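Sequence dictates fold. Below is an illustrative record:

_____
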Amino acid sequence: MELATVGLFVLIVVFIIVFLYYVPIVLWFSAIVSGVHVSLLQLMLMRIRKVPPSIIVQAMIEAHKAGITQIRRDELEAHYLAGGHVRNVVHALVSANKANIELSFQMATAIDLAGRDVFQAVQMSVNPKVIDTPPVTAVAKNGIQLIAKARVTVRANIKQLVGGAGEETVLARVGEGIVSSIGSADSHKRVLENPDSISKVVLEKGLDAGTAFEILSIDIADIDIGKNIGAGLQIDQAEADKNIAQAKAEERRAMAVALEQEMKAKAQEARAKVIEAEAEVPRAMAEAFRNGNLGIMDYVKYKNVEADTAMRQSIAKPQQVNK
């Protein structure tokens, strides 16, 4: 008898727990007290659809107390089932309503499902964010390198959060604008004297177009002087020109040496031919003697001419002085 009583008591307790789980009476009573109309059947169906009733009801209570009437229960359930963050969306709507920022429930859920923190975006719309750019290196027209750092004040653009570019794009565009502004300056001194000119030029380019942010201001925090790029390039160019000139001079010298060697070879070849021709003279004279074409008197005249020629050559040569 006692076992039956204990078993019945356990069954009653389990039934009550299951009943209260599927029929959250306390949550329903809290919603009624807060002025949110939701039935017990709807809460039970949320459990069956695996939607936490506490999240939906608390979001509805928060929106109702903030005076937001555009939120419906089924839309919150659909957003939760789509993988959205219901509490962040409701927090964002309440913050936007208090700050007089136009933000609809559809826009807030779209931003949330796009992977952005919609509540943080609303806070950034109210309280702008300051982004520090990395050091940007640029060269003025006179060849002096400048290294600039900027602080960009941005505000979230609610309408561009879906599909708009992020902070990386803003930083890249600001860096590009700084490089363009410094590069167009005639001298680095002008940039150092008026660093605010960079900010004005960059802001006029509308760098926040197509991004999720609105650029409020660009302030140059620091400018340092880097290397003299122009002088370095001129030195490198002069070194390159010198190497080219040396290479061309070496080429001409090699060609001259080759031509000299060629001329010497030709001269040696000519002398060899002369010697060879001179060696043929005695043979020709002997042949002429044998054939009767050359007589003794002719030979004596030839020797006289040869001796006369040798004498003239010795007279023409300068005399060597013996030391």
User: Anything to note?
Assistant: The radius of gyration is 52 Å. The CA atoms of residues 36 and 61 lie 6 Å apart.
